[in-house]
Automatic annotation (TrEMBL):
Keywords tagged on the record: 4Fe-4S, Iron, Iron-sulfur, Metal-binding, S-adenosyl-L-methionine
Name used for this protein in its record: Fe-S oxidoreductase
Essential cofactor(s): [4Fe-4S] cluster
Coiled coil: none
Amino acid sequence: MSSLIFGPITSRRFGQSLGIDLSPDTKQCNFDCLYCELKGAKTVIKSQKAPLVEEIVDALKEALQKHEHIDVITLTANGEPTLYPYLDTLVDEIIKIKKEHKLLILSNGATIHNPHIQKTLSKFDIVKLSLDCVSSHCFKRLDRPHKSICIEDIIEGMKEFRAHFEGDLVIEILVVAGLNDTEEEFKALHKILCEIQPNRIDVGTIDRPPAYDVQGVSIERLVELANLLENLDVCIAYKKNYIPQKRHFTHVEILDLLKRRPQSFEDIQLCFDEESLIFLKDLVDKKVLHVKNIAGVNFYKVR
Ligand code: SF4
């Protein structure tokens, strides 16, 4: 069997993370996304091969002894981690040993309408779910779900889950050129996201070789689309080698910008010139702005 535990990995959004792979030997997923980093594969709705809870817990205990300074334990998979058949038991066992470390799951959201999955996910500190588009046409073309899965159930499930989940809910949107990169799709996403009320939305694009022949969008387009998600806490994933154009903002322009959409520290550092950074600090000192940490990412927000 391949390794169950990987890391620690430093993530800009969650800090130092120790990962647990719930499908270490083969891809098992209920989606076959065009942008997947793994090779395309037939969708499944049940895990065919799964490591035992004891094996995972033993490997985790060992890793935690070796790596004390981690922030989160992340449940993930070569595929969809909620297909793991013993997820609820595993989560209970991890909670017994995790101490102050936060528990995070990265899921494609396909099973979130299932009450049993909602009950299990409500035990996590952070739940990150994908929602690339809300129109059925786009969803089927981009995420290529198993035939039993529909986007309407996923959206309803996300709303139900949010209503009782007290941890941080993060929604991830991955933008693919020619598919979900339209104003129309993002306006529809904005409406649904306002109803779901996640704590944070991560918007990114393809930056590793995809399973199928698709391409990402430019960072400039990503920013334009993120700006359509007004009044939501959006974190944009910049490519490591991205060199942005620094812009100048007055006090008033900074306030206007942050009223439309709170900006992450990373957004600000990349896009503000020296003087704008001084104005920003000024507004924080005068308590017009404040800093809020949302699931590991700091945002500037208007009070
Ligand atoms: S949900 Fe994740 S693992 Fe599954 S096909 Fe999509 S990108 Fe790949």
